[in-house]
Amino acid sequence: xxxxxxxxxxxxxxxxxxxxxxxxxxxxxxxGKFALSAAAGAGVTVLQFMVSIIIxxxxxxxxxxxxDAVVRLTTRLVGRLIWxxxxxxxxxxxxxxxxxxxxxxxxxxxxxxxxxxxxxxxxIGLFVGxxxxxxxYTLYTTWLNEGLKLVAEPGPGDATxx
Length: 162
Known about the structure:
Elements: H1 2-13, H2 17-61, H3 63-97, H4 107-152
């Protein structure tokens, strides 16, 4: 039964390929794109597999040195993690205490200095930026106040009655 159907179908479709292409052109294009995409994906998968086998082989050759390197790296990371936790905890305690002790620097100046320093120099800038901007703010306000005192005080040659 299937042979009769195929024979009848093939004889009926001879010479009508142009009609089929016009009628089902979009579907055929989508099917072709899907097939090419699947083939390309399979090719990339095989290529990735081959590269991973090469990398695994290299790592297996140097396994003993790799194990030592992993131990050293883990030790350094744990040490830096402990150091970072201590610095962050001390920063949370000391930062609110120290800038507020005897200084008339507004908190937004300290915040802007810390953020700007972090953007400029990373973790070190987080601490240095607040200090630099605080010193600059103090110098600027002192300069303004001194300038206002000079303007407000009359000089020796500024007699009003002469």
